Amino acid sequence: MRAEGIIFDVDGTLAETEEVHRQAFNDTFARFDLPWHWDRSLYRRLLDVTGGKERIRAYVASDDPPQGARALDLVLELHTAKTECYTELVVAGAAKLRPGVKRLIAEARRDSVRLAIATTTSLPNVEALLAAAFGSDAAKIFEFIGAGDVVPRKKPAPDIYRLVLDEMRMPTFACIAVEDSRNGLDSARAAGLPTLVTPSVYTSHQSFPGAMAVVPDLDTPPVSLATIAKWRAADSGW
């Protein structure tokens, strides 16, 4: 069964951006004189919490770091500064699309498959990545971008996917989601979407029960619209 719409997650799915996010967080902590440094092991744990502001609050609650109370008073300022830092890094070329992403998007556009984004990351982060990856075509590619705080609950809640589906006026059976994390998979499945998972550097240790398919990336093997149709036909859950 052909997919009439593909809804992409961003961080870890379109591009391996989490290391860029981690750098932006650490640079921002230094700028605000917070004696914090999130190493890869710590950041992998914190990624179980979706949303940058939520991640800072969770870190204070779970790790009781120095100046935690001060940081909680500055969460919005910290997040704004971190977003600015991240977008500067992306514009400078710090994040590249994952293998096969540009090819599958180009095939979808040729075949009039509708494209959208459902992510918990901030809209400026998404726009910076799309501009860096697609240039002047960026604004034409995705019909709707659901990002940031536009819904009450972030992934793994299904809110962001339901919003995107409502905005596109598309039924769930006509679309698929592409995700990289268990939170993203659970969010998409709760919204009724068959989901293709391409684990990222920070989610490769996770399990993905209920996924339509799990592949290393969209080039391994090369994922096409025909491949997706075969997976959907073989997936008894859809």
From TrEMBL:
The keyword Hydrolase applies. The keyword Ribosomal protein does not apply. Keywords: Hydrolase. Gene3D superfamilies: HAD superfamily/HAD-like, Putative phosphatase, domain 2. GO terms for molecular function: hydrolase activity. Transmembrane segments: none annotated. CDD domains: HAD_CbbY-like (cd07528). SUPFAM superfamilies: HAD-like. Pfam families: Hydrolase. InterPro entries: CbbY-like (IPR044999), HAD-like_sf (IPR036412), HAD-SF_hydro_IA (IPR006439), HAD_sf (IPR023214), PGP-like_dom2 (IPR023198). This is HAD family hydrolase. It comes from Ancylobacter crimeensis.
